[in-house]
Write a structure and sequence with these properties.
This protein is of the alpha+beta class and 431 residues long. It is built from 12 helices and 14 strands. α5 runs antiparallel to α6 and α5 runs parallel beside α10.
């Protein structure tokens, strides 16, 4: 009897076995990694397998395998990624990219990300390309950190060179809006000197009617996010404007502007004084993440630095203006005082000159010998001795005896005894 042996299974191809094992090792290595990993098959780039990080990136609602990558993520086609995969598949040459920008999703849910990526051809045992292996490490946070440092440095340089406050705040608002991973609209309000009202500072993306409506709002409990934050001196996070009581008086205005959430942080000086508020608005209800809060703290501090510097420069300019005004006033006073002194000296000189002339005239007149007989008698003349001199208001004078002098004084109102210097008064009193 002939023994019949059962057929043995064909021996496994070592090359195929090694290739499969290698890919299993890759799956094991990258299955729970934060690096993005995917195996694409065929010219259509079917997603054969991928790790969780890949599906977290594309969105868990699109976590499917066996689907062409272009169908799973149609937004990639317009960004050149599918063309790159076609090139790697066709040529067998790998592609490596650094800080590659990719927009994931579409419309209002689109998100900007950056990756270091590597596309490597997958080959079968014969060396034919059967797909593409995708490996990527997200560098979004590093890229954003670099951009943040660059933008922040530029803002500090603006502050250092004393750029206008409106220019600094407007640039800061635009910087944050560009850095934020999701759409955000930034507003900065400045506190009045008394801290009771908030004025428009910067809000480049908010509609004008909204900025005009909130310009000058009071600080107080329940006055929106900003008024309340300014009053409390602490952040106020309103995640849903439509349902928050702080927004009762402003809800219709916010709805008209298309605003659904507002996170506001007070901007405080080093001494704790209120400088203003820094707000981030959103189109949909949103809860802030740790990265949002960190961004808020960094730029609220930058805004405080800019505003305090502005106040210092304003105070310095005002002090210089007061000093110039005081100097001008002092110069005016000195000039007027010199003019008055010169006028007084001129008048004193004129008065002294007049007095001297009067003394000279009086002395000359006194030196003249008076007549021997009275000049005040009737036509034949009075033979009495001339003892007293009288004068009238017109400067005419005459000598007379006591009787005729008294008669003249009693009957002619403008006549008076001449002064003592001329000898008349003494003679009259001592008669």
């Amino acid at each position: 009897m002939t023994a019949v042996s059962s057929p043995r299974p064909p021996a496994a191809d070592p090359a195929v076995a090694g290739h499969t094992a290698a890919e299993e090792d890759l799956r094991a290595l990258f299955g729970q990694s934060s690096a993005v990993f995917a195996l694409l098959a065929g010219p259509a780039h079917l997603v054969e397998s991928a790790n969780r990080a890949f599906f977290d990136t594309v969105g868990q609602e699109r976590a499917h395998t066996g689907v062409p990558l272009g169908d799973l993520m149609p937004e990639l086609a317009g960004q050149g990624f599918i063309a790159l995969l076609d090139q790697v598949y066709r040529t067998g040459e790998p592609y490596v990219g650094r800080d590659v920008r990719v927009m994931v999703g579409a419309g209002p849910h689109a998100r900007e990300s950056f990756f270091d990526v590597s596309y490597e051809p997958r080959r079968d045992a014969t060396g034919e390309v059967i797909g593409v292996r995708v490996l990527g490490v997200e560098t979004t946070q590093v890229k954003h950190a670099q951009r943040l440092m660059t933008e922040h440095r530029a803002l500090l340089e603006q502050i250092a060179r004393q750029a206008p406050l409106t220019e600094v705040l407007d640039g800061m608002a635009r910087c944050i809006e560009n850095l934020a991973p999701q759409e955000v609209l930034v507003s900065v309000l400045l506190a009045d000197a008394d801290g009771r009202h908030l004025r428009h500072g910067a809000a480049p993306s908010l509609p004008d009617f909204y900025n005009e409506a909130i310009d000058g709002i009071a600080t107080g409990e329940g006055v929106g996010s900003c008024g309340t934050a300014a009053h409390r001196r602490e952040p106020v996070i309103v995640t849903d404007i439509a349902a928050d009581p702080f927004w009762t008086d402003f809800r219709q205005l916010a709805d008209q502007a298309g605003l659904a959430a507002c996170w506001s942080t007070p901007i405080l000086a080093r001494d704790g004084g209120l400088l203003g508020t820094f707000a981030m608005y959103h189109r949909t209800p949103r809860v802030p993440q740790d990265t949002d809060l960190a961004l808020i703290r960094v730029f609220a501090g930058t805004a405080a630095l800019a505003i305090e510097r502005h106040h210092i420069e304003e105070a310095k300019a005002a002090a210089e203006a007061r000093a110039r005004s005081a100097h001008d006033e002092l110069a005016t006073v000195v000039r007027v005082e010199r003019e008055l002194r010169a006028e007084a000296e001129r008048r004193a000189a004129a008065s002294a000159e007049l007095a001297a002339r009067m003394r000279a005239a009086a002395a000359a007149q006194a030196a003249q010998p008076h007549p021997e007989h009275c000049q005040l008698g009737d036509a034949p003349g009075c033979t009495a001795a001339a003892e007293i001199k009288i004068a009238d208001s017109w400067g005419d004078s005459a000598w007379g005896c006591a009787a005729h002098v008294e008669e003249a004084i009693l009957n002619v109102r403008s006549v008076f005894i001449a002064n003592e210097e001329l000898g008349g008064l003494a003679a009259y009193l001592n008669r």
